Amino acid sequence: MAKRKILTDGDPALRKICKPVDKFNLRLHLLLRDMADTMYDADGVGLAAPQVGILRRVVVIDVGDGLVELVNPVILSASEETQTGREGCLSVPGRAGIVTRPMRVKVRAQDRNGAWFELEAEELFARAVCHELAHLDGQLYTDIMDRELTREELEAEAREQEAAAAEEKA
Ligand code: NI
Asked: How far is Cα 75 from Cα 99, in angstroms, rounded to an integer?
C-alpha cells in the first residue's frame, strides 16, 4: 500500500488544467495504484491526479460498485435531468455543500493500457464522475455549489454517523 499526500484547497496544483496522459507505462500504473490506495484510506469515493500533485488527466472512482479507472476522460453527453445533493471533497476537509449535477452522464475514457471505452453513469456515480473530471480542469465543487452546509448541519451529520457506527457494533 502506497499512500500519497492529498493536497488541500489553496494549493495552486488544484487550479491547473491537467495534461493528457500519453504514456501508458509502469509509472501510470503505479500512480493509479497509489491513487486507489489513497482514496480508500481516506474513505473517499473518488480522487483525481492533481489532488496528489500530478497534473495529468487521471481519476479513480469507487462509489461502492468496484474501482473505476479513467484516463483522459471526456463527458460525451449529460442528461437534462439533474440531481441536487450533498458533496464533499478530500481536498476540502471538514466542509460540504449542496451541488447540482446531471443525473446521468456518458463518458469516453482510456483504460490503464490505452484502450478507449465508454461508460454510462447515473446518480452518485454520475456525480462522482462530474466532480472528479472538474478537478482535471482546476475546478472544485465549492466554485459551483448552491450553498455550503452550516456548522450545525455538519455536526448533525457527524452525530448521525456516530449513532449508526454504534448501532453496527451493538
Ligand atoms: Ni474532490
From this structure: 18
Q: Do 63 and 124 meet the contact criterion of CB atoms below 8 Å apart?
A: yes
Cα atoms in the 13 Å half-sphere on the side-chain side of 134: 17
- Alpha-carbon distance of 51 to 112, in angstroms, equals 19
Distance CA 111, CA 32 (A): 11
Q: Say if CB 16 and CB 55 are below 8 A apart.
A: yes
- What is the reported pTM? 0.94
CA distance 86 to 91: 16
pLDDT tens digit sequence for 60-111: 999 999 999 999 999 999 999 999 999 999 999 999 999 999 999 999 999 9
Of residues 120, 132, 148, 157, which has the active-site annotation? 132
The Å distance, Cα 170 to ligand 1 centre, comes to: 33
Quick check: is 132 catalytic?
yes
The rounded radius of gyration (Å) of the Cα atoms in the chain is 16
* Three-class SS state of 31: helix
